[in-house]
Amino acid sequence: MRGIVDLNRSGVTFKPWNRRKLQHRSSLFVLSLSLVALLCFFFYYTHIPSSLLSISAENSGARVPQCRTSTLGQKFLWYAPHSGFSNQLSEFKNAILMAGILNRTLIVPPILDHHAVALGSCPKFRVLGPKEIRVSVWDHVIELIRSGRYVSMADVIDISSLLSSSLVQAIDFGVFMSLWCGLNIDVACSTDLNAQSFLFDSLKQCGSLLSGTSGNLDKCLYAVEEDCRTTVWTYQNDNGDGVLDSFQPDEQLKKKKKIPYVRIRRDVFKTLGPGKEAESASVLAFGSLFTAPYKGSELYIDIKKAPGDERIKTLMEKTEFLPFSPEIVSLGKQFAVNTIKAPFLCAQLRLLDGQFKNHWKATFLSLKQKLDSLRQQDSQPIHIFVMTDLPKGNWTGSYLGDLARDSDNYKLYFLQKQDVLVIETAKKLAAASHSMKSGSVPSNLGALPKVEKQCFPHQLPDALLYIEETVCSCASLGFVGTAGSTIAESIEAMRRFGVCSSQTQTGL
């Protein structure tokens, strides 16, 4: 084209036969491109395993090949977990409750890397929107599968009693992805790079649709766009449906951040249940389901009782505390009995993460006051299990370093990722594969291949945190936790619900 322009600028004109020649060349060029495209198509699809294409090919003509309403015969609920493990567990409990109220099968997510996905601040009305956070979570799940680090929440948390009681149904996220997206995720462990590339690209496209980037999809997807800035979900609440919540952004914040939001209390069943547009969709997709008390209200979900629904009341009671899997609890107790071998105090000291790095003095002061009290009661060395994010090499110059040096009065114990007990627990978790045994898989899958979790995780799950929390639940001399830490709250709950049996406690 540049040559033609230059010639015209020089005053040279093309004769008719030149135009015909150009047209002929153009036709040949288009024909050549078509042949190349055809060859590329043939080459690409002959190098993708039939096991990967057998599911997706049959639906390739539909706009939403993933929407198998007539095949799956179930309605699902998925959501976007985020932040650290304790926050993810809190959201998981909320998701179980929402799935029970709406009578949907819960898609149980994997455990995300610590803060791989962040929500933001609900009190400041500065959060990642539901659509964006769903995309972030889906992409991170793909990365977990790609790197062989996929571990389901149901592998670590024991939900067997919930499922056996039929209070809620569940399906593992990886199984759901495989069935709904029409892909064999086991290809992720294949040595065929073309097959892997095709798989992950296809999963990403499927996730984009199910995240609501194209909006709601008739009878397939309803993407909930309400979040903590606009909504407080309720159920059978006496305060009414559609009324203003007591917590609203103040006028100064509205002006400074140009916030148009008004927080409304909405009954989740009346808004998303029978007779509503959302109810007909096979997949109901929430964003974050995190909530917490704030200024006399809840940030997002305020469901604490269900006076007219005994099933939901029972479900709320059962989800108030969800224990770790038997493998974790057993080996945590084993460390308390066989390694510490004496009554001990647990000190959970969060010192490096976020706001906690600025509160060392207050954190150590609580521990010192507890130890001084114990010293007055008994002159024997005090045994302390230390759970901290501060590496042992950095204890020098801190109160922890002082305790470690005073071996006549204090005996310190701690666990590390490379310890035999931690590795043994991780191996048992991987072998148990609770998520695949306890989840629901539709029985009417027709020609779809059997979904199995044979190849991931490649890496052992990180079980350190779970074992540490279990050991702390067995601390018969008491527990000192970091103020404001969700990990401390989890340990307090474990102690309150007696995770460490009375026999174990008396034996220490």
Automatic annotation (TrEMBL):
Keywords for this protein: Membrane, Transmembrane, Transmembrane helix
Record keyword Transmembrane helix present: yes
Protein name stated in the entry: O-fucosyltransferase family protein
PANTHER family: O-FUCOSYLTRANSFERASE 30 (PTHR36050)
Annotated transmembrane regions: 28-46
Lineage: Eukaryota, Viridiplantae, Streptophyta, Embryophyta, Tracheophyta
